[in-house]
């Protein structure tokens, strides 16, 4: 069952390029309805720059 057939990945790519980060968390939550066939709301969440710098200092 294709759930992600209409994603606008070009917009995600443009956002990633403008932020200079290419890793993100994709969350796809369904709308709270009764029954089946609920549409999903996909959200791409990018990590903050501060969190990325902290992780680099810890692993370095």
Short structural description:
The chain has helices spanning 9-19, 49-59; strands at 24-30, 40-46. With 60 residues, the chain is of the alpha+beta class.
Strand content: 15-25%
Described by strand count, sense and barrel closure, the largest sheet is: 2 strands, antiparallel
Which class best fits the helix and strand makeup? Answer: alpha+beta
Strand arrangement, major sheet: 1-2
Secondary-structure element order, N to C: HEEH
The mean pLDDT is: 77
> What is the number of helical segments per DSSP (H or I, 4+ residues)?
2
Number of strands: 2
Distance between the termini: 42 Å
The general outline is: elongated
Share of helix among residues?
Answer: 25-40%
Rounded to an integer in angstroms, the radius of gyration calculated over CA atoms is 16 Å
Q: Give start-end ranges of low-pLDDT stretches.
A: none
List strands and helices in order, with pairings:
Layout (H helix, E strand, L loop, with lengths): L8 H11 L4 E7 L9 E7 L2 H11 L1
Antiparallel strand pairs: 1-2
Features:
60 residues, alpha+beta, two-stranded antiparallel sheet, 2 strands
What does this structure look like?
The chain has one domain (9-59). It contains two helices and two strands, in the order H-E-E-H. The chain has helices at residues 9-19, 49-59, and strands at 24-30, 40-46. A two-stranded antiparallel sheet has the order 1-2. The longest helix is centred in the N-terminal third of the chain and has 11 residues, at 9-19. The radius of gyration is 16 Å and the shape is elongated. The model has no long low-confidence stretch (mean pLDDT 77).
């Amino acid at each position: 069952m294709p759930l992600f057939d209409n994603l606008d990945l070009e917009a995600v790519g443009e956002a990633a390029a403008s932020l200079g980060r290419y890793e993100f968390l994709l969350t796809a939550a369904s709308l709270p309805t009764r029954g089946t066939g609920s549409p999903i709301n996909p959200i791409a969440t990018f990590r903050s720059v501060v969190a990325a710098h902290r992780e680099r200092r810890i692993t370095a």
